[in-house]
Recover the amino acids of this structure.
């Protein structure tokens, strides 16, 4: 089982990248994890929001493999407490998918074709966060989920 976080555009803030690297390193002690970066589209000013979502969808689909369990990180998805997310993750891993792929969309969200490929959609909050910041928040939650599953003292409840 491998976990992947698929994002559009590199992380430009070195402080945020340092946090992502830290939590990714911690997470790798529990499960193979990869952060896959799709380069940002060029000349987006000439594209409508729908055209941009369509172009991003094409790039996202190229990174997906048959048998992937695709989960969109989307503001309209279901919210879970950290304990519930840990249980959800354990069930998905036990279900036997070769890879669980979490996807952070571009600035306008996801094209309908990507929504159609997704098995599920998860929201991290009703608040809006930058696409850069959501990466570190989500990798931390993945790490937290594994510490919960292993009964380690990172999470307090």
């Amino acid at each position: 089982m491998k976990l992947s976080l698929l994002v559009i555009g590199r992380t430009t803030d070195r402080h945020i990248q340092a946090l992502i690297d830290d939590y990714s390193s911690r997470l790798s002690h529990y499960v193979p994890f990869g952060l896959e970066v799709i380069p940002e589209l060029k000349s987006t000013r000439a594209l409508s929001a729908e055209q941009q979502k369509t172009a991003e969808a094409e790039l996202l689909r190229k990174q997906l493999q048959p048998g992937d369990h695709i989960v969109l990180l989307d503001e309209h998805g279901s919210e879970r407490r950290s304990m519930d997310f840990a249980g959800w993750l354990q069930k998905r891993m036990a279900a036997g998918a070769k890879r669980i792929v979490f996807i952070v969309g571009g600035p306008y969200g996801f094209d309908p074709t990507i929504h159609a490929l997704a098995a599920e959609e998860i929201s991290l909050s009703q608040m809006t966060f930058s696409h850069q910041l959501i990466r570190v928040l989500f990798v931390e939650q993945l790490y937290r989920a594994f510490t919960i599953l292993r009964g380690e003292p990172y999470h307090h409840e």
